[in-house]
């Protein structure tokens, strides 16, 4: 990815500025394959700025309940990949059991879990529609 010009965001906090508006971007490393630095996030996040958390696994929110994060964007779960009517997801991924798909809230912390386009393990989806989501962030100023 880096060879293609992408910046990998892992355990990082940086500021994005546009037209004199600021957004604090926070990222955590993968919970399953690496070591997320929760302490860095808790220490560095400013409550004075809109804070966007990027983390693959949505259940990272459970560790950051008291951290001033406005919006968390996650994936990982594929929306359960196989769902049953009146039951929901048949299997959920580790670190994706509490927040499986859609929008959730913990006080001021909003969590959006995208179902994505692909699959994992089983090459099929059932009642877990693929999803591509666009967000537009606007300043309140």
TrEMBL record:
Record InterPro entries: Metallo-depent_PP-like (IPR029052), Metallophosphoesterase_sf (IPR051158)
GO molecular function, one term: UDP-2,3-diacylglucosamine hydrolase activity
GO terms for cellular component: membrane
GO BP terms: lipid A biosynthetic process
Protein name as catalogued: Calcineurin-like phosphoesterase domain-containing protein
């Amino acid at each position: 990815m880096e060879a293609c010009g992408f910046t990998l965001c892992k355990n990082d906090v940086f500021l994005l500025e546009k037209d004199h508006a600021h957004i604090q971007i926070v990222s955590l490393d993968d919970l399953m394959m690496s070591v997320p630095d929760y302490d860095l996030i808790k220490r560095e996040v400013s409550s004075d700025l809109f804070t966007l958390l990027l983390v693959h696994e949505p259940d990272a929110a459970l560790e950051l309940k008291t951290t001033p994060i406005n919006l968390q964007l996650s994936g990982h779960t594929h929306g359960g990949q196989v769902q049953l009517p009146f039951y929901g997801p048949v299997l959920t991924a580790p670190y994706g059991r509490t927040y499986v798909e859609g929008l959730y809230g913990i006080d001021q912390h909003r969590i959006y879990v995208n179902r994505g386009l692909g699959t994992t393990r089983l090459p099929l989806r059932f009642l877990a529609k693929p999803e591509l989501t666009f967000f537009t962030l606007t300043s309140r100023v």
